[in-house]
Design brief:
This protein is an alpha/beta fold. It has one domain (2-193, 223-245): NAD(P)-binding Rossmann-like Domain (Rossmann fold, 3-Layer(aba) Sandwich), CATH 3.40.50. Helix content is 42%, strand content 15%. It contains eight helices and seven strands. A seven-stranded parallel β-sheet has the order 3-2-1-4-5-6-7, with helices on both faces. The longest helix has 29 residues, at 107-135. The protein binds NADP nicotinamide-adenine-dinucleotide phosphate. NADP nicotinamide-adenine-dinucleotide phosphate binds at residues 17, 19-23, 41-44, 66-68, 93-96, 116, 144, 146, 189, 191-192, 194-197.
């Protein structure tokens, strides 16, 4: 049955940045499909996400840490493994954005955005990929990219560089690990209503310009990413490798 290929009952997942926004919606979607989920938080604790996961009958675990710190991936991976015994699904969702014209962009902002949005994705994927290779059971790694994995943006040089790097890293890891039944893919969300985009939503002119370009005629909601995330986390995507799946209401087609 084709629907059986979307089942992930008993699988163990780790979702970074799961306290709110896209990470929360993805963590809950994975739990709805039967997975146990380790929810990572940094400045916010993912208590609300964990409560909903437990109400669904799945196991939830809280792990915390600043992904700008080099050691955080090792710590949160270690805690997840200690609690769950294994890891089948990694969602590299945590991300940050700092805006400034390129000529004024500070070294500190550049380093912070690259560390959180790209280097930590590599570090965590390396740990999880190594575990999956040793385990021999395959697995799923899902990176959250962006439309700025394809486009340049304005005043967001570090974010664009990092998210373009995430798309390249997705393909690079897929090339190495596909034969070991490890699927590395990414989702590139369009304009989604989250805390990250509040400033854009409130800016009347930018909001109008954005809506005019989206064929679907509306902003996305975090739940609009849930189907794509479950697809990439489940056996339904077993032959998909190194793909960046755009979920944008049609934006990139314009
Ligand atoms: P959000 O609610 O602000 O979520 C960002 C998440 O990243 C938060 O959970 C945050 O954790 C975590 N995070 C930020 N800095 C961190 C750090 N230094 N260490 C560890 N975690 C950190 O916004 P969102 O829109 O859901 O963003 C989720 C992902 O989607 C990001 O990678 C973003 O770039 C990407 N994205 C979003 C959109 C959109 O339209 N919303 C479009 C394209 C791509 P805490 O809250 O616990 O600090």
């Amino acid at each position: 049955m084709i629907l059986d290929r979307f089942r992930i009952e008993g699988k163990k997942a780790l979702v970074t940045g799961a306290a709110a926004g896209l990470g929360q919606a993805i963590a809950i979607a994975l739990a709805e499909a039967g997975a146990d989920v380790a929810c990572h938080g940094n400045t916010r604790t993912p208590d609300a996400t964990c409560e909903q996961i437990e109400e669904l009958g799945s196991r939830a675990l809280t792990v915390t840490g600043d992904l700008a710190e080099r050691d955080t991936p090792r710590l949160i991976f270690g805690e997840t493994l200690a609690a769950f015994g294994t890891l089948d699904i990694l969602v590299n969702n945590a991300g940050t954005i700092r805006r400034a014209p390129a000529v004024e962009y500070s070294e500190e902002d550049w380093t912070h955005v690259l560390e959180v949005n790209l280097s930590s994705v590599f570090r965590l994927s390396q740990l999880v990929g190594r575990h999956m290779l040793e385990h021999g059971q395959g697995g799923k790694i899902i990176n959250i990219a962006s439309l700025l994995s394809f486009q340049g943006g304005i005043n967001v040089a570090a974010y664009t560089a990092a998210k373009s790097g995430v798309a390249g890293l997705t393909r690079a890891l897929a090339n190495e690990w596909a034969r070991h039944r490890i699927n590395v893919n990414a989702i590139a969300p369009g304009y989604i209503r989250t805390d990250n985009t509040v400033a854009l939503q409130r800016d009347e002119t930018r909001n109008r310009q954005i809506l005019e370009r989206i064929p679907a005629g509306r902003w996305g909601d975090p739940v609009d990413l849930a189907g794509a995330a479950l697809f990439l986390a489940s056996p339904a995507s077993d032959y998909l490798h190194g793909h960046v799946l755009v979920v944008d209401g049609g934006w990139m087609g314009r």
